[in-house]
Amino acid sequence: MNAQLIESDDEHHWVLLDHRVTQLVIDRSSIRIQTWSLDGSADIRLAAPFVAHLASGAARHIDPADTERLAPCLALVGLGVRSVTVTRSGTLTLAFSDGSSISASPDPRRPAWDVQGGGILEGMAYAGQPGVELW
After folding, report:
1. Which of 7, 24, 27, 66 has the most CB atoms less than 10 A away?
2. Which residues pair with 42 in a beta bridge?
3. What is the distance between the alpha carbons of residues 127 and 86, in angstroms, rounded to a whole number?
4. Confidence check: pLDDT of 19 > 90
5. Do residues 116 and 40 touch, judged by C-beta distance below 8 A?
């Protein structure tokens, strides 16, 4: 199996094997990261500011609506996706094979992010809604 869900009271941690970022889609107000393996896929949409922690250790605050500053996200294409972690309070963390990661916190005004899985990841369905605990 190419994915494993580790659940606790405070978080759902999906460990992924053989998943790669196959597509990065940019529109006027969000970015979508799509991953794929032979057994499943995931579609992750970020629609509010988030932090990209680069492999070098630097952190970049990124607003998807500011498309001129999305350049650090381009390096994600082709990287392995090691894990997707969602906390009960609404924080999303993506970890990548080069040591980089993305952290998205809830936004009080709008849905900040959503994750939708397919295939063996079909149970992976979360949405970072304002003021809502996820389970």
Report:
1. 24
2. 35, 117
3. 9
4. yes
5. no
CB atoms near residue 17 (< 10 Å): 13
The answer to pTM > 0.85 is: yes
Structure token pair of residue 11: 């978080």
What are residue 15's phi and psi, to 5 degrees?
Answer: -95, 125
Asked whether residue 1 carries a pLDDT value surpassing 70, the answer given is no
Distance CA 108, CA 23 (A): 28
Q: Report the side by side order of strands in the sheet with 31-36.
A: 20-26, 31-36, 40-46, 113-119, 125-127
Using DSSP's 3-state secondary structure scheme, residue 10 falls into coil
Q: Which two tokens stand for residue 30?
A: 């969000």
DSSP codes, 77-109: TT-BEEEEEEETTS-EEEEETTS-EEEE---SS
